[in-house]
């Protein structure tokens, strides 16, 4: 049963999302561009959250001081360079919501995929007076020095899109994001559907060192074992969540394993890189080789609409409304679940054309 506090959190998120919809944002199209439009892509929290066990975290338990965001300095630490549509949309969503709420000052940094820089970025924002931190962790481990610096100043930390191997309500308030194991399972189900449960699959793994890659791999592999033993995984290589690396790995796999009939890419950028590699080898992506990936970028959904792709599981990056609504409830004295899990849509051949406006 949903608790009154959790119900209020979900309601606040929905209200914040609705307000963001009314504000509206511009769209950008083209290779590598992300749409910041939230009119059809607002995050929705699972109600109740599928993974919100435990007593939750309160302002008192965390040892933080109550603040009004309109009088506060808020820091946002982005983990990776914004050449990826997910990161572009995520950062823009944070900026848009901070502006909509009238946050006194928003500090933004980008770690450029360097853990040491993310640590120094967070410490720098604390030195500039940040009273709340929203962090998109580069890795699940290694941010301890930054978390300790925040704890020393009793500054709450809300993490988005990747989990930390740390203690909730001590090192951070809560994780906001998707169920990545479930994403992997849904990708496997989509793969089974488009292949008939038979064939040879290559997995383009994400970057190492974070729970997203581990969980998306586990969900996919376990689901295939359970439901489609006729789909054989013949290769697993990292594409580091990057399009160029995904293309490079796919080019190598085409040479070393020419009988591959399907590709599971753990993000859209690698999947799109695979499309380019397959075309370069004279193969028809989406037909000769089936492709399923995770994210929900506009370019991947367009490829699906163009029959060069076979399925996309969304991972929604528009965390601004959810992050600030969670912060407002936290500073208002409500208990926040350790994991606030969002629902993700799925794109396939039947809905891709009509769903483009909701992609980013």
Short key terms for the protein model shown above:
single chain, 360 residues, alpha/beta, 7-stranded mixed beta sheet, 6-stranded mixed beta sheet, 41% helix, 17% strand, disordered N terminus
Number of helices: 12
Query: Which word captures the global form?
Result: elongated
Structural class label = alpha/beta
- The Cα radius of gyration reads 20 Å
What is the H-and-E element order? HEHEHEHEHEEHEHEHEHEHEHEEH
Regions with pLDDT < 50 over 5+ consecutive residues?
A: 1-39
Q: Which strand order spans the largest sheet, edge to edge or round the barrel?
A: 1-12-6-5-4-2-3
Averaged pLDDT, please?
89
Estimated helix fraction = 40-55%
Q: Note the beta-strand portion.
A: 15-25%
- The first-to-last residue Cα distance is 33 Å
Largest sheet: 7 strands, mixed
Number of strands: 13
Task: Explain this structure.
With 360 residues, this protein is α/β, with parallel strands linked by helices. It is built from 12 helices and 13 strands. The protein has helices spanning 4-23, 59-62, 85-101, 115-127, 144-152, 180-195, 211-227, 243-256, 268-280, 298-305, 320-331, 352-355; strands at 44-45, 73-78, 105-110, 132-135, 157-160, 174-177, 199-205, 231-238, 262-265, 290-295, 311-314, 339-343, 346-347. Strand 7 (199-205), helix 7 (211-227) and strand 8 (231-238) form a beta-alpha-beta unit. The longest helix is centred in the first third of the chain and has 20 residues, at 4-23.
